[in-house]
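User: Run a structure prediction on this.
Assistant: Running it now.
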Amino acid sequence: MTADAAPARVALVTGGSRGIGAACARALTDAGYRVAVTARGETPAELTASGVLGIRCDITDSAAVEAAFTEIEEKLGSVDILVSNAGITRDGLVLRMSDDDFAAVIDTNLTAGFRVAKRAVKSMMRGRFGRIVFISSVVGSIGQAGQANYAASKAGLVGLSRSLAKEFASRGVTVNVVAPGPISTDMLGELTDKQRAAITDSVPLGRTGTPEEIAATVVFLASDGAAYITGAVIPVDGGLGMAG
């Protein structure tokens, strides 16, 4: 980099310690971004060794979110790209689902997404550039028995992202959603062989996706080449979400 060249843009991935989040962190690092990840636990050594800044943060805690952004700004600079990926599941049929299980999933998957986006967009507006990418799910559009809380939270991200897209478009900030289908992560690995086979059989392409395939879409949406895309929901689901 020459002496007067602009520094690399800063990307933050929430829930970046494993699965899709870790894949996004790796892909963004490979693409030349300075990357930070938040997680409730330790950031894997594999990521920190590649220069990723790992920060412990409970994104349901506003004070913790503020502290995480402050640390990123001090060590890397203002966040230019936000990948809001952190999420949880607490599955159960509606008649057995507690109010606490419903509320916890909404708070982590949806409200916390609003919380981190609200904090990130302040500097994006000043710089007249920003990329916000929410990681949703095909379940948000097609539903899933036993996942009313999860489906509601992921569907909510679509309305949130499109509202933010309209609010901040004039400041050069784009806001989009990536909606993965079944992806080979720890969550899928917890299922039985029979359950995994049933999921695979429902996907037109006949296989589960990889975290790297989600990450590739995220990197594109973060790029200058995606400057004219905002308010979009991009399915990366092997065709599972196709209507009819």
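The beta strands are 10-14, 34-39, 53-56, 81-84, 130-135, 173-180, 233-236.
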